[in-house]
Design goal:
alpha/beta; five-stranded parallel beta sheet; four-stranded antiparallel beta sheet; 22 helices; 9% strand
Amino acid sequence: MYSFRDLFNYVKSYKEELIKGNLIAIFATLASIPIPLLIPLLIDEVLLDKRGALLNSIDYIFNYENPIFYIIITLLLTLILRGTFFLLTILQTKIFAIISKDITFKIRKRLLNHLQSVSMSEYEALGSGSVTSKFVTDINTIDNFIGASVGKFLISLFSIIGVAIILLNIHWQLGLFILFLNPIIIYFTTTLARNISKLKRIENIAIEVFQDSLSETLELFSQIRASNRELGFINGNINRAKEIRESGINFSWRSEASSKLSFTVFIVGYDIFRAITIFTVFYSDLSIGQMFAIFGYLWFMMAPFQELINIQYSYANANRSLERINDIFKLKKEPNYPHLQNPFEISKQNSIELKNISFGYGDKKILNNISLNIPAGKKVAIVGASGSGKSTLANILLGFYSIDSGDIYYDKDSIKEIGLDVVRENVSVVLQNPMLFNDTLRLNLTLNREFSDKDILKVLEIAQLSDVVENLKDGLDTVLGKNGVRLSGGQRQRVAIARTILTDPNIIILDESTSALDTQTESNLLNAIDKFLEGRTTIIIAHRASAIQKADIVYILENGKI
């Protein structure tokens, strides 16, 4: 879980960068603060012939008295100070951009590490579109807040403090009046920001729902088209896009209106201050040059005050994004079992025993107090009607779903003493609809493990894919497209089988893994992998009699029972 205190602690850890950034901010402020004062002083000291510190300093340095020279020197000094301020702020921005991007990287890294161990049932309930939205949209919102608050806040704050000191020195009563009204403006804009952030959250939720829906529609587009339902699904996404439009319009114009209102309040205050400053010239010793200097500082203060206002909005938006990111951290993790036993190291042939296994989604029971034995080295078929829980049983064997009661044993060792990672390293499942990466055939086979081409080509021959690879333009380095779109359904299944054979697991689960093959190809494939499966514990989940005819034991699953 994340809070603003966590973000603050992250920022504090960059001590060296913060010190450097703060020093640069101070020097940048020192370079910018005198700028509005220099030219107006010329009005008093040159035009009104009231010599003061500026002309005396120029005379002392250059020993040359000339009104035109005074103006040129003052202008050059002003330009040098502006250039210095520009360079220092760019340097400071770079330093704090590094801090900001590094922190958001750490947040993403922590989220990914958490997601790595999240329960599959929890993840499936949240949905990939929702997770993606939080990883991109919400973390970018936090990134904007960190960049604004850490970098721009310092310059803005130091600038306001510097201006306050100068205003108090020019005319302390007028300076106090100006500084007294500014907190009122900040309080007013803070209240507006808090209300506008709620609208941003609504827009983010609409974007999340749209992303989730669009992702599913695109992934299942072939099925949708086959059912002639494109219009219905596309219209559904259009309606969700409309919700983004409506919430976006609502947020955008209200946010802009709120920002403009805040700025207008400041401008109105600026006009009032100018009028009061003119009155002050009449009724006090405030000079005309000082009056123009105050005008300059009032305008100068607009930028830092606007930055502080924007930081308030950014803070409110980041607060909502933190809440949404914490939704991922609220997902329950799968059990972290200790590595006390490893039966897969002792033997390549392992038995499986399920004792009183029960599992369900909420109130709906899928498996009800199941017990069964799968002897080591045997082929065991599990058959049953659709929805009987066959695939759920396969997921439970891999620890994808946490069971409600009972236990699973591999060679008499409980899964709770082996560890889920060890089980998945030695128990491999081939799914009916395998997912493939939009990458090369090689990567889809190896999953970034190191295998020689000789080993890869050998398993491709077993999986009846040799002729397919020969016809691919770049062979093993051919990019398969999103979810293997360049392959047929049967070819994708065979790629998944080849991937499993390549890892040489102790136990193999074939979950309807040949359902997309024609009878002849299926027969050739089963005969080809028969030697590989010989003596290896194999679980076959299937409807076809051809897929289970070589099974040693057949379990029938019906109504959640064996």
